[in-house]
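quick one: adenosine-5'-triphosphate bound model?
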Amino acid sequence: MPDSPVAGSRKEAAVQALAAVPNVPGAPKPDPILVADNVMRRFGGLTAVDVDHVEIQRGAITALIGPNGAGKTTFFNLLTGFDTPDSGSWLFNGKDLAGIPAYRVARMGMVRTFQLTKALSRMKVIENMRLGSTGQTGERLWASMLPFTWRKQEREITSRADGLLERFNLIAKREDFAGSLSGGQRKLLEMARALMSGPEMVMLDEPMAGVNPALTQSLLQHIKDLREQGMTVLFVEHDMDMVRDISDWVIVMAQGRVIAEGPPEDVMKDSAVIDAYLGGHHDKALTASGVSFTEEDPA
Ligand SMILES: Nc1ncnc2c1ncn2[C@@H]1O[C@H](COP(=O)(O)OP(=O)(O)OP(=O)(O)O)[C@@H](O)[C@H]1O
Ligand SMILES: [Mg+2]
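yep, here:
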């Protein structure tokens, strides 16, 4: 387990590092972990993603927001090797990821969760966790001929899985089928499983969707904890109160393009963002508290 630094210290560092970044789409960051250029994905006549340039700051929590159909999930799929763009390049820690399959992207340190959870419901919780580990010696030919090495590693994987299940309050469900978990518990399981490979960057696609309010706070805290442990987080979320609560920086997509960037308070007052939401269709209120997006902007 990584050291746990003083709570909030990494947040302050992240906010400070981003303070001088201009609020413009594609703004360069002081220490980007991920840089994408001219990433384009078409489905027939529809351009789902058309991102000129975007940089994700290392060690920060960045929210990716935008109306339904803006291209957020498609962009995630492209970056993590679950889909292939028509053109473009993107670098993770300076390494070109084009053409690298998803499992190798995960090994390189970038993992993601899905908008619709992908927990394997007919497998036990602990088995789902074990699947999240990568770089297993057991997969390699020579090592597989050495049962001792293999068994030692199996024990390490199991103990890492149990540690994460404790942390995510799922240890009591260890032997249950994933299919028996509630929606919120499945989201927790997915996040815990993503951490099995010890990633540097975690991408979460609507981690809070369908989670009941009792679990929401715990999920939010887990996301903040990822930053405190030194990870970079990029997450998609529709609920603006949650975005405001946990993100250091917000990137806004509409119709496949990045249309705005900035700290949460600034982005929510940005007229291009308000127009994109009003022009788009969205299946959720912009805030959970009922405070309207436009109230702060008396136009
Ligand atoms: N496999 C596909 N085939 C055809 N069109 C697709 C495919 N995947 C996505 N699209 C289209 O691409 C556009 C972007 O979809 P995407 O799911 O990336 O949006 P999103 O921003 O994640 O939306 P939401 O907030 O509703 O999850 C949409 O118009 C969608 O219908
Ligand atoms: Mg989506």
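Residues 43, 46, 48, 66, 68-74, 115 surround adenosine-5'-triphosphate (ligand 1) (CB under 6 Å).
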